[in-house]
Amino acid sequence: MRVADSFRYQLYVSTLSNLKAQMDQATGEVASGKKVQVPSDDPAAYSQNLELLAEQSQNSQYKGNLTSLQALSGYYQTSLNTVSNLLTTVKQLAVQMTSDTVDATSRASAASQVNDIISQLVAVGNTKVGGTYIFGGMKADTAPYQANGTFSGTSGVGQVAVDASTTMAAGISGNTVFNGTVNGQAVNIFTTLSQFATDLANNDAGGLQTDLTNLENCVNLTANNLSYVGTYADNINSLLTTNANADTTITQRSSSLVNVDMAQAISDYTTLSTAYQAALYMMAKVESLSILNYLPTNM
Amino acid sequence: MAITSILNIAKGALSAQQSAIQTISHNIANVNTPGYSREEAILEEAQPVPSAIGLMGDGVVVQGIKSYLDQNLQNAITKKNSDVQEQQVYEKYLTQIQSIFDESNSNLSSNITTFFNDWSTLSTDPTSTSDKQTLASDGKTLCTTFNTLYSDLVNPQSDLNGEVNSQIDDINGLTSKIASLNQLMSQTGNGTSEASDYVDQRNQLLQQLGGYTNISYFTDSSNMVSVVTSKGLSLVDGTFSYQLKGSQNATTGMTDVSWQGPSGASQDVTSQISSGSLGAVLATRDTTIPLYLGNLNGLAQSIMQNVNYFHEQGNDNAGIPFFQCDTPNYARGISLADQIAGSSGTVQTQNIMASSSTADTTGNDVALAIASLANDTLLGGGTIVSTAAPSETTPLGLSGRLAVNGVPVAIGVGDSLSDMGAAINAVKSQTGVTASVVQSSSGYQLVLETTSGGGNFSVVNGDLDTSSQGLLQALTSTPVSGTGVALGLTGTIRLGQGTSVSVSSTDSLTVIEGNINNDTGTTGVSASISTDGSGNSVLVLSKGGQPISIPAGTITGTVGLAGSTYANYEAGVVADIGQATKSATDLADYNQNALTSLQQQQSEESGVSIDEEMSNLIMYQNAYQASARLYTVAQAMLDSLLNSVGVTTQ
User: Fold this and answer.
1) Rounded to whole angstroms, how far apart are CA atoms B403 and B307?
2) Of B17, B57, B517, B529, which sits with the fewest C-beta atoms within 10 Å of its C-beta?
């Protein structure tokens, strides 16, 4: 086989530049820790990773949403506990006051005590957290309860996205807390308490008996709502756990797609750099062999 | 037989060896000349002369100069070089485009996600001014990202246009040089060093010309080469060359290429040039970049229309858009709406809507609907295909609204695929989207495509109130244990034809059944309660005696149409670009290797080997010295003859 000299040089150049390009790629992988640096390195992996990053960013948004709901659920629990305690007090009072031995004066003084409790319940209904009246439903920027317990918020509450396909109620409306149905009977805490105060003031023994039953319903309503809020908090916590797991999974999948196996990458780099040195050595070695070295200079 | 004939032989031999050495010098001098084919002086015995003892040899003559050129191999190289040049252009520009779309440079994907995340944040605190400020600022960043990507993509397009002009000049230069060489060739005899040098030069020019665009060529009897384009238009004919001319297209502003033929003939050849570097430049300029610009425009358009669709429903349909754009190039023109950006640059946060109702001052349905676009939106490139239904006339039991390119289309629970198609086609003039029902192996499918046949469009769930869909799903997918038990479900079932049935939390299956049947006259939908395999009760809806099947999972959001979310769509575009770049790089490497292999074969035939030339040089040098010695010998012979003869006669 004839070997043309100019082509031999061309081959050296292309061999060296090929090795150099591969070494650059390997250096980049080691330096960045990523085996997929630009889309063309592995288009499928790059785009999957891009989708995963978007998913992860959304997931962290859901985490933020859940965290704010979690804070909210704490306030609901505290508020409902207060409601529950106040109602227990009122119920005890009612049991006392329904007794035939209690006179009108005592009942009148108890009436003012109940009115105090109504004010306290209105205050609970108007609980404000960072500018938001948490019982206002979708009208949470103004106090939902007037002093007499009239509700001006909305029964519905907003929804908050907690994962890609699920929304969760943003808390609970005052209209659900202070108003509802127990054993098929409509119950309104403020109406019941107002009626109770009125019956006390009027010394209406018959009315007080009815009030006692109604108060029982109020206590049950609150118990139901407390359990709802408890479940609500539990749901949030379990969603937060799911969320954290999803984040870990995404991180692992993303890593397996684009991250480099460092040991492999460094070993690849070493192999390439050895090949490069060998190519340079051979080039120098072969070039020192020339017919011109063996011909007399003055033929 | 005379001693003088020895002198003649010596003279011929000296001349022949000298020619051979001259040829070797020429070879050595051109060891690195591209396209040079090594030459060799062909020595031949001279015609023998008759003598008393028969024919006697009369020395050596140079029969001619042979050029070692395999023209077929050379033609293959020219052809392969065309592929190499083509792929190298693709590689160069696609790498550029890829780096524009590379997420670490563009941040498009993360900016889209951030924007929709902001809406989700706003939904948790719908009156927060700071959340709205963030939203406006991230919305603006998203617009700027689109604007920048658009202009970054347009830049290589104008670079490519400049390249078209310069390549046309190069091609014209090459064809006229080939024509001049034809002229010289016709005046030079065959088998001379001069002629083979011209052939080498011409081959080199043809190889360069083939690099610009695929050509065919053939040599005629007078050694002139004719060059035609792959479509048969003559570029070189004998000593004439026909030029290409660039002229600006009035519509696109880009350079069109025309061929200037004999006697004033002119023909537009822009679309004919599909190979070589010019082919690649034109294809990248006219096809690849417009495709990605189209993808960007589609994405920007869909985000703008769908966000606006919901945003305009804010505050009792106040009609305030979030984005605006005054050009069909949405990626170039998208910006925050004036109502949001504010005339003095102060963000008008009060115009950023979270609630559809002014009564629900802290409602968040609009924010929630926009946030869910990140998950639900179906952006179709070209066509969107629904999941298969058993028949085209069976009601699907889907209810609600679709927003097709931001135009609402009402879908009733009794609507079949055909009905959905008709409803979508009714607003075709506004949406530019055509629907048709096709039968596939798995059933009937609704195929949506743009009327023009290209570009992107989107279909999203158009209902702000997602609870009705959840309700419908709950009703149809959750069996309950008793027909009279309150289900605790609240909301509205939309039954089409503007009729809906309200459901409150105390309603049982029986009550809901009754309410739906009250409206059967209007809706055509009737309800009945049946018992499933586990003895539980389920509500079955039917229309015209046909049960309405409600496939699980097709109610929420998407009506079962296949497409992509924004993030996935963007990732898909980047994957396309990555794949195209990878193919171009791989093909460029492959073709380069193939070319190298051809060049190696050619160099074995035509390349100059210094070892060989030096060996031959010694060989001919020795022959030259020996021939010169013949003079001395002949001289001595003549001398001795003359001397002895002279002595005798004196």
Assistant:
1) 11
2) B57
Contact check, Cβ <8 Å, A7/B599: yes
**Residue B413 falls within a domain, yes or no?**
yes
Domains of chain A: 61-255 (1.20.1330.10)
Nearest to A38 among B102, B359, B556 (CB): B102
Shared domain for B485 and B422, answered yes or no, is yes
Question: Tens digits of per-residue pLDDT, B377-435?
Answer: 555 555 566 656 667 777 766 666 677 777 777 777 677 778 888 888 888 888 878 88
CB-based contact A38 B109, cutoff 8 Å: no
Lay out the sheet containing B266-268: strands in order across: B244-248, B255-260, B266-268
From the CA of A265, how many Å to the nearest CA of chain B? 21
pLDDT of residue A271: 93
User: Does A62 contact chain B (CB < 8 Å)?
Assistant: yes
Packing angle of the helix pair B129-186, B193-212 (nearest 10 deg): 160
Give the number of domains in chain B. 2
- pLDDT value for B543: 57
Write out the DSSP string of A10-71. HHHHHHHHHHHHHHHHHHHHHHHSBS--SGGG-HHHHHHHHHHHHHHHHHHHHHHHHHHHHH
CB spacing of A291 vs B615 below 8 angstroms = yes
Range of the structural domain that residue B444 is part of:
382-564
Residue of B117, B132, B507 to mutate, interface with A, max A Cβ within 10 Å: B117
Q: Report the 10 Å Cβ neighbour count for A289.
A: 9
**Dihedral angle of Cα A262, A268, A273, A279, to the nearest 10 degrees:** -170
Mean pLDDT comparison of B169-178, B483-492, B595-604, highest-scoring range: B169-178
Cross-strand pairs, B218: B226
Q: In this predicted model, what pLDDT tens digit does every residue of A54-101 receive, in sequence order?
A: 999 999 999 999 999 999 999 999 999 999 999 999 999 999 998 888
| B570 with A55: Cβ contact below 8 A | no
- What is the CA angle B7-B13-B15, rounded to 5? 105
Are B586 and B578 in contact by the 8 Å Cβ rule? The answer is no
* B431 part of a folded domain: yes
B616 pLDDT band (50/70/90 cuts)? very high
